[in-house]
């Protein structure tokens, strides 16, 4: 069975020579309370890029062009103790958009200096790969979460 497909997009801007990333504390659903990038599930027939364009707009009111989304890789999340949460996430970064991020039903967007991303308040996997992506890198990693549904207990190296 293929895993459910989701997407995440990190908007990046420059302020006084420093790079900032847009995150927001998720208001409900999977990962409620964590700071996350903009994103969500792919709808039937959508590509990950289509879904990222749509989710960025739905969650922040910002319009991005598909061509301005930089594909940065794929993350696989396994939850052996809650199979319904297992999913695969396409990762994008975007530096150009139209409009100003605004609060939505999903999250209240907030800019963070890339040097002070609030990893302690994010999914446990994020600190392991997000710095590299924010620094311009690509990612292809798999994370297995434990019985607490919050802690990464294993990272199979064969697919890292
Ligand atoms: C387990 N470790 C994780 N680490 C970092 N980010 C994670 C994550 N697990 C899920 N995500 C992100 O969460 C969104 C999907 O969440 P999911 O509940 O499926 O979608 P969301 O509630 O937004 O759905 P809608 O499509 O709006 O209904 C999507 O951006 C995805 O990248």
From TrEMBL:
Its cofactor is Mg(2+). Its EC number is 3.6.1.56. Keywords: Hydrolase, Magnesium, Metal-binding. Pfam families: NUDIX. GO terms for molecular function: 8-oxo-7,8-dihydrodeoxyguanosine triphosphate pyrophosphatase activity. It catalyses: N(6)-methyl-dATP + H2O = N(6)-methyl-dAMP + diphosphate + H(+); 8-oxo-dGTP + H2O = 8-oxo-dGMP + diphosphate + H(+); 2-oxo-dATP + H2O = 2-oxo-dAMP + diphosphate + H(+); 8-oxo-dATP + H2O = 8-oxo-dAMP + diphosphate + H(+). Gene3D superfamilies: Nucleoside Triphosphate Pyrophosphohydrolase. InterPro entries: 8ODP, NUDIX_hydrolase-like_dom_sf, NUDIX_hydrolase_CS, NUDIX_hydrolase_dom. Residues 2-135 form the Nudix hydrolase domain. Belongs to the Nudix hydrolase family. PANTHER family: 7,8-DIHYDRO-8-OXOGUANINE TRIPHOSPHATASE, OXIDIZED PURINE NUCLEOSIDE TRIPHOSPHATE HYDROLASE. Monomer. Oxidized purine nucleoside triphosphate hydrolase which is a prominent sanitizer of the oxidized nucleotide pool. Catalyzes the hydrolysis of 2-oxo-dATP (2-hydroxy-dATP) into 2-oxo-dAMP. Also has a significant hydrolase activity toward 2-oxo-ATP, 8-oxo-dGTP and 8-oxo-dATP. Through the hydrolysis of oxidized purine nucleoside triphosphates, prevents their incorporation into DNA and the subsequent transversions A:T to C:G and G:C to T:A. Also catalyzes the hydrolysis of methylated purine nucleoside triphosphate preventing their integration into DNA. This is Oxidized purine nucleoside triphosphate hydrolase. It comes from Agromyces ramosus.
